[in-house]
Amino acid sequence: MKVPLSWLKAYVDLREDAASVARALVAAGVGVEGVAGIGNDAVLDLEVTANRADLLSMRGVARELSLLGRPSLPDPAISFQESGEAAAVSVRVEDPGFCPRYIGRVLRDVRVGPSPVWMRERLERAGLRPINVVADVTNFVMLECGQPLHAFDLSKWRGSEVVVRRARAEERIVAIDGKEYPLGPGDGVIADGAGPVAVAGVMGGRDSEISEATRDVLLESAQFDPVSVRRASRRLGLKSESSYRFERGVEWSTVEWASRRAAHLLAELAGAKPAPGASEARVSAPEPRWITMRFRHVVRLLGMEIPPSRMYEILEKLGCRIEKADADAITLIAPPARRDLKGEIDLVEEIARITGYDLIPVDLGLGLKVAADAPRDRVMREIRSVLVTSGAFEVLTSSFEEAHAQPLTKTWSQAPLVPLRNPEGHVDRTLRSSLAPSLLRVLRTNEGSKVALRPIFEIAKVYRSVAPGVAHSDPDLGRDRSPFDERWVVGMAVPSGYADARALVERILNRLQIPGHIQGASIQVEGRAIGVLSIPERALQELGVLAPAAVAELDFDALAARAALTRKVRPHSTHPAVVRDVSMTFAEDVPWEDVRACIAQTASSLLVVAELFDVFRDRKLGDRKKSLAFSLTFLAADRTLSGAEVDAIVADIRRALQERLGGEERR
Amino acid sequence: MDLSTKIEETRKRFAQELSAASTQEERDRVKNRYLSGPKCVLRGLFGELGRLSPAQKADGGRALNALKGELEEACRALAQQDRREKEHKLPPDPSLPGRLPPLGRRHPVTQTMDDVIEVFARLGFDVVHGPEIENERNNFQALNIPLDHPSRDAFDTFYLEPPWLLRSHTSPVQVRTMLRRKPPIRVIAPGKVFRPDKADASHLPMFHQVEGLAVGEGVTFAQLKGVLLLFAESMFGVGTQVRFRPSFFPFTEPSAEVDISCFICGAKGCSACKGSGWMEILGAGMVHPHVFEAVGLDPGRFTGFAFGMGIERICMLRHGVADIRYFLENHLRFLEQF
């Protein structure tokens, strides 16, 4: 809200510059977005929090500054002569819950022209466009006291009754913006004898708008239910200074003050002749808000000793009517303008902020405590560490996916995707069920900028609807089990292909001490698939990734449930190892996996490592043949191995490979 | 000639031949003749063990193994010396790159998140998690945010099938924690949150927060100030000042916005702190009695404080990242700088 300092000074005695006013407000919790200078005036741009409806007016801000020690000035004058016949307008409120108070006041012989320069200037500095004297006065009074007003051209009124009610089916209204709006059954309207003339608290209708030709005015000042106004405003997509204030709540007694203040100004500035009295419909005035505050409670909550006398003083200054006070507690009636003060805690906050948060001491005595172990978090950190030390880059991608007809990659579940509804209720996006597409898009982005690609990974949640009747469990979900299954997935995309992706997966399993194996595209642990690993050709093509990237996705919960992070050591040998390199020729269709298994079966326990270091193909080897070169490391726990002993084992291995897998010595 | 004499002879001859060999090739030939293959000198000597008595055999074996070790060592030493000499003769280029395997990186948001978590872990806060798909009750009502109330404007929300939604803050984890644990409670809840904001230099529809909560008998605002001062000093450096400004959050009262003194300009005023010397980094306050009531805790007995911060924002301040969207773009040239 824009507050011109010159205007503010009409209500509070300020003898300081705008910066000093801003500092005082900020320290008390009233946000100041900025201070702009206009001529010799300054305009404060206030950021008013949702609880402080009382600050949405010049007088409200002035009241706050008085609380902060600036002397307040007398209230603006209200005096006007009523004349002519009593107006033949009556007010009927169908739903007092929606409209607890409505005052309609008739003003005759209004000269609709421009408002005086001083008023136009104040409105402009406060960010409102001057229109004509009637509209300007309603806006001026709203900014002055926070109560929105509306003026109707009385000559356009059909019948003599003002009806405040909910809209009926099929009703429509053309608003002052010239657009037609269909009304919903919950929307509050102001209606004349023929139909709605305004959306209550939100916007007036075009047909009853004040014009140059207007002579008689019906001035509305009312209190509407904040929730109904908010719903109507949001549903219609109409927001106004009025709806903003009604949503936050206006004050009962100000409804009348504002009506009289506007009559005073219109009589003075536009020659209006207020008709005697005003038509009013109201329920009884709101109950006073009684609050009891225990002095010890303030100290217990803030951790600061504040003398009760000081608290008493602050509450009194706040405008509280103190009914009873003793050594332990104070009982009072909250000031009507501060509708946010409802209970003890609200008074504690007032005392804290007026005292100043700076004065509350810093207490380091929360007490020593060891944070509980979080094993799942440790597993996640370990996985991240394995991947990063292996040269992979962690990325962060959006949880949203465009709604695709078919998933691009194989995922962990075929249950329905989770649709997101936009404000209009349409589904244009879903929550992702796989990390693979986002990871591949990251590869493509980087390919596009000619960066040397690296393995990338992300640990994030993926989402599915739970198929009916399927149980799911997530350690994060305690109560309130949702019909959605969200789970952590470790996803990686490896531009150099399948073998490296597989090696990364194996490294993770190894570090977590999970015995697993990879069968084609499936990562298996204890006979259960806990992940997938493949080169997703179709997705690569569709997303335009050039590298033959492999993607893997692992179910994090499955890993966390089986992981063992504490390692037990075996005694290690201090004797030298003996290494023998072997190369043999095999048919193309013999996989390394089989060769390795054969070596492991044949060798004694002295063989500790069998590592492939070269695959060689050459015409000389023969058609559909390949040469595998591998090194075998032998080690004994208790002695230095002799070369002869190792050579004998290697000979056995060669023989076994020859007999079982058709391996040939290279010639 | 007995075995020990032969060993002695062999040792001398090997030394002579090795020292006579002037090239690597000649030395290899000497080495092979003595040490490699079934017909080498040493293998011959081992063969003679068979003719000895068991006692002599043991002694002889030991002596031969020792000889073998000696000869191998001599070859190795000479080869090493050779290599050194050779390298010495080549023009040295100490600027040649090493060939270490490349390092990967944790994402900058993860790095900042881990640092924040570590600081609070040192202060005794347990890490807890909550789901990203939440219901209205935990995200709003239980946190004293009524539906259809202007205080919800700050929490625009992605909806699934009502009442399900994507949590718009990590505060629902407060609710879940208090439903499941009894005080004293001291937890932090890191995680992703979602708001339907248009992406620009300082907004993303998906970002990360860390929520903190302490509940017990006699937890005070003064302790909240203490914990956040320790956090600020651990995270941003000893001597960092902390400023509390009154504010409004529906689920805390009294509420505060918390600023730290600008660590870029030393609180003198710069573009990062918009000239004020202060940077806003988190929101905090005392748990509202309505929140305690919503989770069945007696607000007459327990008090508590809560705080929450945006991780991307802190990460941007620490590293001078100008645009929050960089975090989601994942250009390796950006990520490799962390």
What is the arithmetic mean of pLDDT of chain B? 91
Strand order of the largest sheet of chain A: 19-23-24-28-27-26-25
Largest sheet composition of chain B = 7 strands, mixed
SSE order of chain B, one letter for each helix or strand: HHHHHEEHEHEEHEEEHEHHH
Strand order of the largest sheet of chain B: 1-4-5-9-8-7-6
Helical element count of chain A? 18
Helix content of chain A: 25-40%
Helix- and strand-based class of chain A? alpha+beta
What is the overall silhouette of chain A? elongated
CATH architectural category of the largest domain in chain B: 2-Layer Sandwich
> What is the rounded Rg of chain A?
39 Å
Number of helical segments of chain B? 12
Relative strand content of chain A: 25-35%
Residue-averaged pLDDT of chain A, rounded? 92
The CATH C-level name of the largest domain in chain A is Alpha Beta
- How many distinct domains of chain A? 5
Structure description:
The complex is a heterodimer of chains A (667) and B (338). In chain A, the strands form 8 sheets. Chain A has a 7-stranded mixed beta sheet with strand order 19-23-24-28-27-26-25. Chain A has 5 domains: 2-67, Phenylalanyl-tRNA Synthetase, Chain B, domain 1, CATH 3.30.56.10; 90-282, Phenylalanyl-trna Synthetase, Chain B, domain 3 (Phenylalanyl-tRNA Synthetase, Chain B, domain 3, 3-Layer(bba) Sandwich), CATH 3.50.40; 290-355, 2-Layer Sandwich (Phenylalanyl-tRNA Synthetase, Chain B, domain 1), CATH 3.30.56; 375-562, BirA Bifunctional Protein, domain 2; 578-665, Ferrodoxin-fold anticodon-binding domain (Alpha-Beta Plaits). With 667 residues, chain A is α+β, with helices and mostly antiparallel strands. Chain A has 18 helices and 32 strands. Chain A is elongated and about 125 Å long. In chain A, helix 4 packs across helix 5, helix 12 packs across helix 16 (556-562) and helix 17 packs across helix 18 (643-661). Chain B has 338 residues and is an alpha+beta fold. Chain B has 2 domains: 3-89, no CATH class; 109-335, 2-Layer Sandwich (BirA Bifunctional Protein, domain 2), CATH 3.30.930.10. Chain B has a 7-stranded mixed beta sheet with strand order 1-4-5-9-8-7-6, sandwiched between helices. A two-stranded antiparallel ribbon of chain B has the order 2-3. In chain B, helix 5 (108-122) packs across helix 10 (311-319). The longest helix of chain B is centred in the N-terminal third of the chain and has 36 residues, at 54-89. The mean pLDDT of chain B is 91. The interface between A and B is large, with 91 and 84 residues.
